[in-house]
Amino acid sequence: MWRRLNITMIWAAAMLVPGLPLAADSDPVEVWVVLSEPALKTLPRDANKERNALRLRIQRQQDDVMAQLAALGAVEEARVQHARNALAVRIPPAAIGRASKVAGVISIRRVTHRNQIGD
Predict the structure, then answer these.
(1) Contact yes or no for 36/100 (Cβ under 8 A)
(2) Closest among 85, 88, 79, 95 to 25, alpha carbons compared
(3) Which of the 8 DSSP states describes residue 119?
(4) Whose CA is closest to 31, among 8, 48, 98?
(5) Strand-strand pairing, 105-110 and 75-80
(6) Which residue, 48, 50, 28, 37, is CA-closest to 79?
(7) Which residues, other chains included, contact 85 with Cβ-Cβ below 8 Å and sequence gap of 6+?
(8) How is 4-73 classified by DSSP, letter by letter?
(9) 82 — phi, psi (to 5°)?
(10) Which residues have C-beta within 8 Å of that of residue 55, sequence separation ≥ 6?
(11) What is the pLDDT of residues 17-67, one digit of tens each?
(12) To 5 degrees, how large is the angle CA 33–CA 21–CA 81?
C-alpha cells in the first residue's frame, strides 16, 4: 500500500508542477502556447475594421510561431483567437524550453482540459 501511495503522490505532484513531465521524455505532450497579440474579445463586436485588422495580425503571428514550433518537432492540434490568442500543439518535452523563447510566446501550459486554455 505504501508503494501505491507513493506513486499516487508522485503522480499528483507531477500534475501540480508544469515542468515535470508525466510521459517519457520522448513522448510528445499537449500544451497551449499563449501568444502576445491580444485576443479578439478585447475589441467591441461592432469594431469591424479593428477586429479584421487584429484577426490578420493574430493569423500572421500564429503562422510565424507555428512554423518555428514545427521546426522543434511540434504538431499543431488547434488554434484559438476569440477568447485567447493561442495554439494547441503536441511537442517533445525537451523542446518546450526552446519553444518558450520563440518571439511572441507569452507562456506554455500543459493541456489539462481541451476547453480551457488557462486561468
Answers:
(1) no
(2) 95
(3) -
(4) 98
(5) unpaired
(6) 37
(7) 34, 35, 36, 37, 38, 39, 58, 61, 62
(8) HHHHHHHHHHHHH-TTS-SS-TTS-EEEEEEESSPPGGGS-TT-HHHHHHHHHHHHHHHHHHHHHHHHTT
(9) -75, -60
(10) 40, 81
(11) 455 444 455 799 999 999 999 999 999 999 999 999 999 999 999 999 999
(12) 15
Q: Which residue has the cell 493574430?
A: 58
How far out from the chain centre does Cα 51 lie? 23
Q: How many CB atoms lie within 10 A of CB 64?
A: 14
Which domains does the chain carry? 22-110 (3.30.70)
What pLDDT shows up at residue 8? 37
Residue whose C-alpha cell reads 501550459 in the numeric block = 109
- Is the separation of the CB atoms in 102 and 65 below 8 Å? yes
User: Using one digit for the tens of pLDDT, what is the confidence trace for 85-101?
Assistant: 999 999 999 999 999 99
Tell me the whole-structure pTM to 2 decimals.
0.74
